[in-house]
Amino acid sequence: MIEHVEKGEQGKRIGFQLKSINNLIKRNLGMRFDKAGLTELVGMQGPIIGFIYDKGREGPIFQKDIEQAFDVRRSTATVMLQNLEQKGYIVREAVEQDARLKRIVLTEKAIEQNMRIRHQIDTFHDELEQGLTDEEKEEFTRILNKIKKNMQDGR
Q1: Hey, what domains does the chain have and what are their CATH numbers?
Q2: Element (H, E) at 140
Q3: What percent of the chain has pLDDT over 90?
Q4: Model's pTM, two decimal places?
Q5: Alpha carbons 119 and 18: distance in angstroms, whole number
Q6: Distances from the Cα of 48 to the Cαs of 10, 97, 103, 129, in angstroms?
Q7: Do residues 106 and 89 make contact, with C-beta atoms less than 8 angstroms apart?
Q8: 120, 33 in Cβ contact below 8 A?
Q9: Element at 150 (helix H, strand E)
Q10: Residue burial 39-60, b: 16+ Cβ < 10 Å; e: rest
Q11: Sheet bearing 90-95, strands edge to edge
Q12: Fewer beta carbons within 10 angstroms: which end of the chain, N or C?
């Protein structure tokens, strides 16, 4: 049964608090990226470059890997990668064993942009966690994982 929440009581509800913090995080990161001149990458482009950078050290990255990692359809991944290619952030290289298969490789421009983005995010996290003890961070993470599990279980 869904209970009625009195006006003014919403701020005490965890869902409202999480939504509020999510909005503040988005706004704060957006302002940081604007100030740092990191506005060319939009939507999922930055995270995709970060994924290719990280996973590319383990082996070649293909479009299928992007589709699986970001849970997007083939057509969506195609458009996102085409946009990154047009902006000069990636190149697609044919694989020796199968010329139809193209591995995705970051350009120097993408690597530099990725480092600048990561610096902004690392600085943001340092400020976000300022004044929190390791124990508080662990407890907060433990509670968030419980909430996440509740959501995944469909409760």
Answers
A1: 14-152 (1.10.10.10)
A2: helix 134-152
A3: 74
A4: 0.72
A5: 25
A6: 35, 25, 14, 25
A7: yes
A8: yes
A9: helix 134-152
A10: eebeebbbebbbbbbeebeeee
A11: 61-62, 98-106, 90-95
A12: N
